[in-house]
Amino acid sequence: MIELPILGDKVEDTQTQEYFEEFNERYELRVYYYEEDNNFMIKMLRIVSLGLFSLFENWFVSVSLLSFQKSTDPTHLLIQKMKDGKRMSRDKIIRCKRDGDRIKFKYEYINFLITPQNQLKKLELINYDYNELSKYEAQQRQILYGENIMQIEECTRSEILFKEILSPFNIFQVFSFIVWSLDDYYLYAFLIGILTITQITISLYDLEQQNHKIREMIYYESSVIVHRDHHSFNISSKDLVPGDIVEVTPKSMVTFDGQIINGEAVFNEAILTGESTPILKTINMEIFSGCSCLSASSNCRALVKSIGFNTIKGSLARYILFNNSYTYSFQKESLKYLIVLGFLGAILSITNYFIRLKSTKNQFKSTIEALEIFTILIPPSLPTALGAGLQVAIQRLKANNIFCIKPDKINVSGMVNLIGFDKTGTLTESTLKVLGCVEKELLLNPNHCKEIMQLALKSCHTLVGGCGDSLEIAMLECCQQQFEFEYQKAYQFEANLQRMTVIIKYKGKLLAITKGSSEIMERLCFSTLPDQFTSTVNNYLQEGYRLISFGYKEISDVDQERKYIENGLQFLGTLVFVNHLREDSRQLIEQLNSINIKCVMVTGDNILTSINIAKQCQIVDPNQPVITGQIINDKLVFDNNINVEEIEQMNYQVALTGDSWECADKVFVNIIFEYP
Q: Smaller CB count within 10 Å for the chain: N or C?
């Protein structure tokens, strides 16, 4: 068995807390220690209340805690998941188990342990030795960390039915049925019974479908080649453990979070990032569960670091399943509405009771009629009507190939007042075409460019086996010339640098070839730029074209620092790409604008290109000017020194870069998005 280290003396306490980070969320987990309290009064209260107290224990965690007492040797734990003082999930009481001096428990599909020093930790492997595991080590780690699988706990139909019957809405329905039956309104009571059964049936169907979709969405198992004990063999991906070394093969799905330790591969990470552009991963780069491997070198291997729900995909799945922070809950708002009605109903019922008691002197009759008023104010058909409405909405969404795993959020979608769109592949087509290559001021066919420019087109990319970024595919295909060269080193594209560089050996010379955004290459090739470079580039950008510029220089040492290699480059030219607007983009934006849903574009492309596309699809009015901002002395300054008040008064359209956005204050952001 793998032993976890014990540091320090044992600490006696009744609670602990720790901060964790996952899927861009930092939250605090608070754990309180309890043990069952065999309180005689609680047992009597359950009996005397005819089970009503047990119902409240089922509905409210605070009432359930009355059956427990704080303890330093707990059998149960109260878990609170907090962020910025707000609950991210409903408080939960769970059982825990002892493992020596440690306390182990599972919360939201993640295994946790509390050390003897009262430290709360996730049960995961931290240190890796990059050596193949023995079969014994793999078996022990599987016992400790469990299977590499994401499987939602499946409730039986009877369990779901029992929970539905005990929900506050349905208990109230049963109460209404009894009240009206006691007053001989059998037909109305029968109708309430039919509505209740219909409501439970609809809810049961919804929950079964929802659970099935979630399980289907996140469950995945495949065959992988693992290296253990200096042998390689096929196993099921669910048998992988942290520390395993796995072969990465083309056309496969990654089932773990890990690190490339040999070779290289191209991955599609759209499931996690929404970005359709494939990404090249080389040695020491991270790979993630749920991503597709498009191509890989024959010797590509990866080290398994996280499995199951501990992966990034697992964090996303748990976020969908359990997170309820920053969301409007229709059910909670409905419950508030019913509480107000219930309060008014209680006042009317009590008033009616005393009035009827004076006139009839029949206490039983007065009580029943008072309760009838209470049930009339809260319509028995309300839950059924809500459930039927959701079913109609779900079927309409299905007809448009839209599937909802949380039907309760359908009502919330009516509150959406702003939608942000990516540009490439969303508003525009995902494929690009090369219009030509600009050398000085002339637009040329890439095959007619000078030799070194054609060499740059053929060498400066991250494609593996023809798979990768659509821009690079178009760049490679536009040039028909073939070259024989040898790669020496590659500096991958970095968003903050806006460029990539390769070092190749060609005709006995070491050449560093760099490609990047026009504004970055303008700085790197400053002394060799054509006279009209800036104006030429801006003209193409304003027309909505995408631009990539190239530069090179001869070097003597492949191990020079990157900043020296990329400094003082000789300008080669600029490749111009056409990225057409999708046929349905403009119609969609116009529809959203017509119902007062504000549309904005969020993209990493050049601001001038983005403004052109925004005008084409009506995100901004093509007949009105667009004000841009830039950072001067750490302050946001707009065109012609226009201030925020003028932007608000004149209703100017605004475009900001990432740096400008970071400097925009909250007041200005509210003005842009017209928040209430």
A: C
Say if residues 59 and 90 touch (Cβ distance below 8 Å). Answer: no
The structural domain count of the chain equals 4
**Would you say 603 and 422 are in contact if contact means Cβ atoms under 8 Å apart?**
yes
Q: Which residue has the tokens 């009339």?
A: 376
Residues 313 and 238 in one domain: yes
d(CA 33, CA 12): 11
Residue at which a domain ends, from 289, 322, 355: 322
The H or E element that residue 575 is part of is strand 570-578
185 domain residue, yes or no: no
At 276 the pLDDT is 65
Show the low-confidence residues of the chain (pLDDT under 70).
1-12, 23-24, 275-276, 324-335, 361, 405, 664-676
Q: How many Å apart are CA 302 and CA 283, to the nearest integer? A: 9
Dmax (CA) for the chain in angstroms is 113
Sign of the alpha-carbon torsion through 538, 543, 547, 553: negative
Residue 665 neighbours by CB under 8 Å, 6+ apart: none
Contact present, 165 and 200 (Cβ < 8 Å): yes
Q: Report helix, strand or coil for 260.
A: strand
In a domain, 390, yes or no: no
Strand ranges in 620-661 using DSSP code E only, listed in sequence order: 626-632, 635-638, 653-655
3-class SS shares of the chain: helix, strand, coil, % to 5: 40, 25, 35
CA–CA distance, 647 with 640 (Å, rounded to integer):
12
**What CATH number should be reported for the domain holding residue 260?**
2.70.150.10
Sheet holding 110-114, edge to edge: 97-99, 102-107, 110-114, 120-122
For the chain, state the CA radius of gyration: 32
pTM: 0.73
Angle ∠(45,46,48) on CA atoms, nearest 5 = 60
Give the pLDDT score at 430.
80
pLDDT at position 664 is: 67
Token code pair at residue 104: 């182990």
Q: Could you say which of 578, 605, 627 is where a domain stops?
A: 578
653-655 vs 626-632, strand pairing mode = parallel
Tell me if residue 295 falls in helix, strand or coil: strand
604 shares a domain with 485: no
| CA 109 to mean position of chain CA atoms | 17
- Cα→Cα distances 49→41, 52, 162, 286, Å: 12, 5, 20, 58
The torsion region of residue 260 among left (phi > 0), alpha (psi -120 to 50) and beta comes to beta
Alpha carbon distance 393, 410 (integer Å): 8
In a domain, 240, yes or no: yes
Burial of 32 (0-12, 13-18, 19+ CB in 10 A): buried
Q: Please give the Cα distance from 631 to 637 (Å, whole number).
A: 6
- pLDDT for the residue numbered 675: 44
Establish if 619 belongs to a structural domain: yes
User: What one-letter code names the amino acid at 498?
Assistant: Q
Cα 127 from Cα 304, distance rounded (Å): 12
How many other C-beta atoms are found inside a 10 Å radius of the C-beta of residue 327? 12
**Residue 63 CB neighbours (<10 A):** 14
User: What's residue 666's pLDDT?
Assistant: 57
Instruction: Check if the beta carbon of residue 291 is closer than 8 Å to that of residue 271.
Output: yes
The three-state secondary structure class of 301 is strand
Instruction: State the residue range of the domain holding 645.
Output: 585-673
CA dihedral 333, 338, 339, 343 (to 10 degrees): 150
pLDDT score, position 26: 83
Pair (604, 505) in one structural domain: no
